[in-house]
Predict the structure.
Amino acid sequence: MIYFDSDYMAGAHPEVMQRLVETNSLHTPGYGTDEFTHRARNLILEKCGIPDGEVYFLVGGTQTNAVVIDRLLDKNDGVVATDTSHINVHEAGAIEAWGHKILILPDNEGKLKADALKKYLEEFYADDTYPHMVRPGMVYISFPTELGTIYSKKELQEIYSICREYDIPLYIDGARLAFGLYAKNNDIGLQDLPRLCDVFYIGGTKCGALFGEAVVTARPELLRRFDSMRKLHGALLAKGRLLGVQFEALFSDYLYERIGKEGVRLAMQLKETMEARGFKTFIDSPTNQQFFILPNKVIEKLKPYCSFEYWGPPGKEESRVRFVTGWSTTDADISTLTSLLEE
Amino acid sequence: MIYFDSDYMAGAHPEVMQRLVETNSLHTPGYGTDEFTHRARNLILEKCGIPDGEVYFLVGGTQTNAVVIDRLLDKNDGVVATDTSHINVHEAGAIEAWGHKILILPDNEGKLKADALKKYLEEFYADDTYPHMVRPGMVYISFPTELGTIYSKKELQEIYSICREYDIPLYIDGARLAFGLYAKNNDIGLQDLPRLCDVFYIGGTKCGALFGEAVVTARPELLRRFDSMRKLHGALLAKGRLLGVQFEALFSDYLYERIGKEGVRLAMQLKETMEARGFKTFIDSPTNQQFFILPNKVIEKLKPYCSFEYWGPPGKEESRVRFVTGWSTTDADISTLTSLLEE
Amino acid sequence: MIYFDSDYMAGAHPEVMQRLVETNSLHTPGYGTDEFTHRARNLILEKCGIPDGEVYFLVGGTQTNAVVIDRLLDKNDGVVATDTSHINVHEAGAIEAWGHKILILPDNEGKLKADALKKYLEEFYADDTYPHMVRPGMVYISFPTELGTIYSKKELQEIYSICREYDIPLYIDGARLAFGLYAKNNDIGLQDLPRLCDVFYIGGTKCGALFGEAVVTARPELLRRFDSMRKLHGALLAKGRLLGVQFEALFSDYLYERIGKEGVRLAMQLKETMEARGFKTFIDSPTNQQFFILPNKVIEKLKPYCSFEYWGPPGKEESRVRFVTGWSTTDADISTLTSLLEE
Amino acid sequence: MIYFDSDYMAGAHPEVMQRLVETNSLHTPGYGTDEFTHRARNLILEKCGIPDGEVYFLVGGTQTNAVVIDRLLDKNDGVVATDTSHINVHEAGAIEAWGHKILILPDNEGKLKADALKKYLEEFYADDTYPHMVRPGMVYISFPTELGTIYSKKELQEIYSICREYDIPLYIDGARLAFGLYAKNNDIGLQDLPRLCDVFYIGGTKCGALFGEAVVTARPELLRRFDSMRKLHGALLAKGRLLGVQFEALFSDYLYERIGKEGVRLAMQLKETMEARGFKTFIDSPTNQQFFILPNKVIEKLKPYCSFEYWGPPGKEESRVRFVTGWSTTDADISTLTSLLEE
């Protein structure tokens, strides 16, 4: 069986796991006050080029989005996001549960368009009943998006400059950041991100960790009393050093970069294999998620040997599917897939 | 000056006010445990034909929507509503503040379409990731809608039968119910409503009261511990008898009906006056809200003598405007408007 | 029947009611943007001696406490209050419903003691696990307290100076403010309050209005975006001018003062009457709430002619009861009570 | 250095860690739908003797308490707990953040007293203003308590029978359950717990896991739609199998029992060592937390070589301290401590 369902189906990258084993018997203080967490923080700040910034670790993506958004928004604010965004669709209302409306704009291949954002904000403040409406208090995007696409530096700059004009934070969900940073033609590096948004997170769960996400900001004042906020949300891990150990491993020896590059390389091979057989993508994704339209016959043939997901309801003759690569995908997996398609 | 801005710009209908004055010096127990509230409740149950039903009084519309929706939904549920619905647009996030997502469907002249609702519910349960999504726990519509339109009995029956199929309550916001019940061609009476939905409210604030809304249900078990829920929401009026006194007045001597009929009659005159001058409506509303496209010149001419609202941003040559009649609108107001238009 | 149950059992003081009647047919814009609200605001600011302050009107006390406290607290903050405080006991969890813990200190005849507050705050910050605890983000007291007692100016100054030392707002619930301001030996005036706390409210519901509370602050920046906050809480009255009209009446011709003085005068007469018969108070209250220990025989004799409340569960031989005077209490009521006791 | 600060300072028990390593490269579906989770669930149900019960896994204790309590309570309910309980003191308001008041009763050495609970519930319903108060909707206790003490079976039965009388669930926080189950004189087994309460959790984080808590109930209907509830709370782990793998390890080869027994054995040795030197306990705990009053001189002597926590503010001559044993404590640690004390 080969697995392309998602990037969270195996455990941790062996180098991450090895560090968890090596450090297992050590005693450290709890809740992220340990030396591993401190070193991981410093490593990340160095890679991001923001020595005065701050890093906080959390366990999972929905949790991270809920805590960060709840912290960035005033009580009577909402968060602007696209209709296909993860927080709007697949987090079971975790944002609204903390009292915040998601203000939905249409997406363009998963991306928020700068002009749509500008128009929305202009019209909001032009309407004199706006105190009766939910104020757009921040903007949420993801990089890569739910559809695997990435913003260019220019696109991000446009969005961020609108946010600064309206003095609202821009937050980037980087659940799959590794695969965006090392995508072909991507022109955004880790050092650029703190200058292109206010807060972002470096995804661990989908990028080689057992679990864990690292929230990064060059403006620590935005995440005030964040220990207490994490505790309040049930998001402060007792053995916090587990997060520090993993992120220290991910940012040592270029592991995060290697995971990102390898996932993208295999995704591109997968795409070539599909396209060589005449199967089309319905989204042109440069990252580790690949979206194809496959004949149902092909799907049926693959299913016993290969797992992947339908994207939306199946069609009559052909259906939309998603294939995802990750740290545990191998060249052999792609070869096997190629053989299956060729049979 | 003549006023067509909205239906909450004057105080209470004189017959309501008179009862408040007459009863002012009486002593009653608080929080709605008084005889006036009891009598108003019984009057409403009788008019609705549901002797075993229940009625609860609240102060305002946003409050009522927030309390009822919070009561009807389980904690991890959302409420289905149209994108133009009041709760989605003009209540400053009061629904989300209590943790509930609004699940938005496109509207058709302000109305929810039964087939769109059915399709949405079918697809929701067909998606096996639905535990990661917000469950549609109830449906919210208004009668009349934000755009003054009304549902036919057949349309309501279709919506309600879908709700029953999925076992989720249907709630009707009746902020302007009087003007819907007595609209031309309306085929729904107060006695029908308890059979066409699970909970609805009879609007007072916009229909002749100083303030107040009456929540009605034929299924009292749906609104369990509603005293405590109202208190929790800051929605339990200390001098609760003020609501009882007002609703007793509104449902005595056919006052609510008279207010509804008169508002509609004047709205229809207003429409005729406009159409006679060649001005078109952009929504064909049979109720007390009327929506016209007026040349900006006409708007400028009217403004010093007549108040009304823009509906959306003004256009270059002509703009969309809303005129509203209410208990305090008179024939003289319409005559004055007619004269102003003829000048 | 004579009524001493509470101060919210009759309607509005006739002078307030008269103004509501006189202004009933006028048209004004909604949501407190009218001239009455503006004038009431200015009158209150003038009486309080804070021309640069701000005033906001709400409908009821629980609502006011919930909105103000939710606005003053950061998301991970709690409010310090005494165990007998109204928000802790009789508001059905309306503070916690918005996510805020009530941090309870023992009371002294209903009052918060400065030294207990100081000790609590010192110990909180001395405990290095405090990010895992709820931060005391503000202090809530009431004037008069739930037990009718009042703070001296010196006591308030001590509390407020501790709050300033810890940079947390002090908020005073003035549901029965009129009866505190005009209590015998009270040394605090309306002009003092803005200098003795950060935010307070002037109670209307229990002091002569049909309903309504006026939130006052000399530091408007503390109540930022308060229109939106009120809307979010379902606490922004559509016909907002009703609050303006009432508070304009209350602060014209010394009405609020007259109501306060008269309520206190009658309460003192009531107390004398009781004491003359040998019945003891269990709290020595100088305001309109009076607390007596009455033999059950006396209670039984009074009940058919006079209403009042038990304070706690009835005892075997004697029970604790509360008598309250208000704008509608008369000298005749006291005489009748006296006669009843003498029989 | 020897460590007695707490039981979450080292990683996972080696047998747990070994299983995580062995299963690391396997692919499984996410969110707890994997075979490991299924097997762990079945193992636990078997050990508890409730084949028709249900088990859900979460990441940490605060999170577990917040999700379970939010699920068990109706919206206008609070949870009864002692003043020293973890949810009341050290969870940063995570319960109130979801809208629920903690209804505080005084504790007796960390334990809730059945008669105090009964009196509280009786008085609540005897007070006819109870709809204005927060309804006690469930009872929370912990086993062992924050002070290391345990309930006898008789004590638990008394509490549970009161809960059943009032038809409110009893929930037991078992963060340190292993050390309670295997405490000397404990007469409660895993098979008893489902009959002595409605929901409880088996602590992993403090009892040998890297992280993780297992919520168990014999009444699955109480935890309806719990996947969605966990997701909503940000508490549904993507690689859910990590929890299954760990709990399968803990409940194989009697590991949980061995960890519990060993922690208790070492704690008793530690206590003997202390008592042999004349140092008194201020709580007589039979579990892995031990509470002593030590002369400050002794504390100073130990500090460079041994870590432990102050319990409250230090005293002038002597102070209260807590020593905790866990899976990583060894006989050698106790010997070293003994030597340090003897010097």
Notes: DSSP finds 13 helices and 13 strands in chain D.
